Amino acid sequence: MASGQYNLISTNFKVNQCLNTFEFQTAEACPKINFYLIWQFVEKFSFIFGALLIVIGLFETFYGAKVLIVTIFLATCMATITIVFIFLFQFIIPTGGNPAIVWVVLGISTVVGLLLGYLVSKYNKALIGMILGGYMGYILGLVLYDSFLVKIQSNPTVYIS
């Protein structure tokens, strides 16, 4: 369907009722960004991500304050991998593509994360504030999204008043 077009599927309209329903089919109601696909990938390989995060968490628990440069490197690397992965997965990779491409995107994200983690750990006083501020903004966005938009499904129902 072209933009702005719709098909009226069903209607329940009565003049004397306050609650009338119309059911439309249109491409305008489709979500432009779908985080469910990313979550599906993480759930499918949760044993890999879980083991990696447990090892990093244990290291940070016992040695995080002692080796601050490594902590800065890991935090920057993980934040960059997350943001670049979501960006590439949502805006560049088409939906319904080859599942192996997700690993390629994760590899590209990891290389970018390692590079930025190295730069921030080397020039930490200049870049650490910018990286942490960006990551905290990202986390705040996720919290707000999950708090207020959790009711939106992958195929939302559109109500026209």
Tag the structure with descriptive keywords:
mainly alpha; 2 domains; two-stranded antiparallel ribbon; 2 strands
Radius of gyration: 22 Å
Strand content: 5-15%
User: How many E strands?
Assistant: 2
Helix content: 55-70%
What kind of assembly state do the chains in view correspond to?
single chain
**C-alpha termini separation:** 23 Å
Give average pLDDT, whole number. 78
Shape: elongated
Low-pLDDT parts are: none
Helix-strand makeup class? mainly alpha
User: Helix and strand string, N-terminal first?
Assistant: EEHHHHH
Q: Major sheet, described briefly? A: 2 strands, antiparallel
State the domain count. Answer: 2
Total number of helices: 5
Explain what you see.
The chain folds into two domains: 1-30, no CATH class; 36-148, no CATH class. It has 161 residues and is mainly α. Helix 3 (68-91) packs across helix 5 (124-148). It is built from five helices and two strands; from the N terminus they run ββααααα. Strands 1-2 form a two-stranded antiparallel sheet. The longest helix is centred in the C-terminal third of the chain and has 25 residues, at 124-148. It has helices spanning 36-44, 46-63, 68-91, 100-122, 124-148, and strands at 7-12, 21-25. The chain is elongated.
